[in-house]
Predict the structure.
Amino acid sequence: MFRMMILMFGLLAATGGFPPASAASAAKARVHVIVIDKMQYGPMPTGVRAGDIIEWTNKDILEHSATARDGRFDVDLKPGASGRITATAGTLAFFCKFHPTMTATVVVE
Ligand SMILES: [Cu+2]
C-alpha cells in the first residue's frame, strides 16, 4: 500500500499534477541584457516593463558603468562583470562615468 502511494505521488509529479509554485511570478519579470563591447552599449532592449530586470554585461577589458543621468541607478561593471537593476517606468538615459562619450537610452513602459 505504501509503495503504491509513492508510485502515485511520483506519477502526479511527473505529469505536472502539482502546479509549479513560482510559475506566475517567473513569467512576469523578464531579464533584458545590454552587452557592453568595444566601448559601446549594445542594442537597447525594447518592450521593457517596470519591474523587469535590466542587466549589463561588460565584455571589455576596461571597467565601465551604467550611470543614470537622473541618479536613479549607478552600476559599476568591472571587466567581465555583470550588474542589474529592477526597471522603473520612464526614459532611462545613462552613460559610463569612466567614458562619458558612452551614452544610451532605454524606454521602460
Ligand atoms: Cu566605460
Summary: Residues 64, 96, 98-99, 102 surround copper (II) ion (CB under 6 Å). The domain at 25-108 is CATH 2.60.40.420 (Immunoglobulin-like). The two ends are 55 Å apart (CA to CA).
